[in-house]
Amino acid sequence: MTLYTRAGARKYTNADERHRFIQAARAALPEIGTFCLMLTYTGCRLSEGLALTAQDIQISAHSIAVKSLKKRDAVVVREVPAPTHLLETLEATHHISDRQAAGDTTPLFPWHRTRAWEVVKGVMDDAGIVGAQAMPKGLRHGFGVWAAMSAVPINIIQRWLGHENIATTAIYLDVVGPEQLALATRMWNGVDWRGVAYEMPATLSLESGH
Predict the structure, then answer these.
(1) 49: containing domain
(2) Which of 26, 12, 30, 35 has the alpha carbon at shortest distance from 120?
(3) 21, 80, 147, 154: which has the highest count of C-beta atoms within 10 A?
(4) Which residue positions in the chain have pLDDT lower than 50?
(5) How many domains does the chain have?
(6) For position 186, what pLDDT does the model report?
(7) pLDDT in the model for residue 175
(8) Is residue 198, in this structure, part of any structural domain at all?
(9) The predicted structure's pLDDT at residue 188
(10) Burial of residue 100, with CB atoms counted within 10 A of its CB: 0-12 exposed, 13-18 middle, 19 or more buried
(11) Does residue 188 sit in helix, strand or coil?
(12) What does the H/E/C string look like for 115-149?
């Protein structure tokens, strides 16, 4: 698995696309917006997002319990940290606390995969994102690159994404474009062309991609 198609097209959303996607998600219908935001901030697979119930949203623990089907049909649960604003949005839209108290285990997003794919693609279109990355998998890959560029240890990224083999996770260390330039800036920081130490202004941002 790589971050590029055979034709050389990028398969992950970059920082600028992620910001635009988040803005478009917040402007969409509430249920659509929360689904898209949840995919963006957890990196979970489409099927995993569709399986989420109120019981999986752990507001006090600031995490979301994502269930994935592994070998021998065993369900493996991984807890992925979630930002406060995402959890608050989920609570306001889906009444998480009330549903937890009632023991409600129905899915938060009662859609089939085709509908979910269309929902994400529609928000991608609204955000002006086109190309191989303009699909749910592009958000998952984008999460992996985002985590790697934020210096999250590779074993933690592996856990968050639910990869069985860490070699699969390692593709997110092979970043390019603005992400690679940001890494190079870290290397260059502190030494000018003569080898004289100095303090370099933070002109490049990992989050902005500039």
Answers:
(1) 15-173
(2) 35
(3) 21
(4) 198, 200-210
(5) 1
(6) 75
(7) 73
(8) no
(9) 75
(10) middle
(11) helix
(12) HHHHHHHHHHHHCCCCCCCCCHHHHHHHHHHHHHH
Residue 61 lies in a domain: yes
Identity of the amino acid at 131: G
Q: Write the burial class of residue 190 (CB in 10 Å: 0-12 exposed, 13-18 middle, 19+ buried).
A: exposed
Structure tokens at 130: 């086109």
Closest by Cα among 184, 186, 178 to 208: 178
- What does the pLDDT look like over 151-175, one tens digit per residue? 889 999 999 999 989 999 999 987 7
Asked if 40 contacts 22 with a C-beta cutoff of 8 angstroms, the reply is: yes
pLDDT digits (tens, 9 = 90+) for 39-66: 999 999 999 999 999 999 999 999 999 9
Token match 């989920």: residue?
A: 90
* C-alpha–C-alpha distance, residues 189 and 197, integer Å: 9
